[in-house]
Amino acid sequence: MSAHRPFRKAAAVTAALSASLLLSGCLGLGGKAPKQLLSLTPTVSAQVGPVTSGSTTDAIVLMDPEAERSLEMLRVPVRVNASTIAYLQDIAWVEKPSRQFRGLLAETLRAKTSRLVVEDGDFDVVGRTMVTGRLLAMGYDAPTQSVVVRIELQRQEKAGAITSRRFEAVVPGIQAKAEPVAAALGEAANTVAGQVADWVLS
């Protein structure tokens, strides 16, 4: 039995090295400056020309959402397994993804309503509808080869009612490369923004 142990150990090390080398072509833990910068572009937007006006007390106010620790930096996270996070090489966000999603949601809402939409930081106000929450995922899931955007939000009306809901969009079959991941992130983020906007306005 003992004669086989060195062989088994060597085979296990070889397998681990092979997996590591396979991932190393796509993933990184930091280092070089990215070749591309990623921003979220809305698929719908408010019309050019018409002016939206109204009382801030009647506005929809979007607070800056909190975010998971892996989303507090500008790198695009890659979930390797349940306990390991790496970052996609050659690409980074131009701004924190939580703030970018807030801007995307604001533009999506402006395209769907005539109500005033205010992003937290524009004014120190309490609107008729306050939206806050936490960005849970906006990156690549290696085991399923998919891009995932997930956010949990709370909506509070001036009357006092508070509702909470989790939103998610998944784009499957994506290679762990900068360009396809960037395109899928834009698609998933716009899908979630549309879902959230419909919920806020319902």
Summarize the structure in words.
- With 202 residues, this protein is α/β, with parallel strands linked by helices.
- Helix content is 30%, strand content 32%.
- It is built from three helices and ten strands; from the N terminus they run αββββββαββββα.
- It has helices at residues 5-24, 97-112, 178-201; strands spanning 27-28, 36-38, 60-62, 66-67, 75-81, 84-93, 117-119, 129-141, 146-157, 162-171.
- β8 and β9 form a beta hairpin.
- The longest helix has 24 residues, at 178-201.
- This is Cholesterol transport system auxiliary component.
- It comes from Novosphingobium chloroacetimidivorans.
- InterPro entries: ABC_trans_aux (IPR005586).
Count of individual helical segments: 3
Using the coordinates shown, work out and report the CATH topology. Answer: Rossmann fold
Oligomerization status of the protein chains: single chain
Q: Give the domain tally.
A: 1
Q: For the terminal residues, how far apart are their CA atoms?
A: 68 Å
Helix content: 25-40%
Main pleated sheet: 10 strands, mixed
Radius of gyration: 21 Å
Total strands: the figure is 10
User: Secondary-structure element sequence?
Assistant: HEEEEEEHEEEEH
Overall form: globular
Poorly predicted regions? 1-22
Q: Would you identify the CATH H-level superfamily?
A: ABC-type transport auxiliary lipoprotein component
Question: CATH class, anyone?
Answer: Alpha Beta
Averaging pLDDT over every residue, what do you get? 85
CATH architecture: 3-Layer(aba) Sandwich
Structural class: alpha/beta
In terms of DSSP E residues, the strand content is: 25-35%
Organism: Novosphingobium chloroacetimidivorans
Protein name: Cholesterol transport system auxiliary component
Pfam families: ABC_trans_aux (PF03886)
Domain ABC-type transport auxiliary lipoprotein component: 51-197
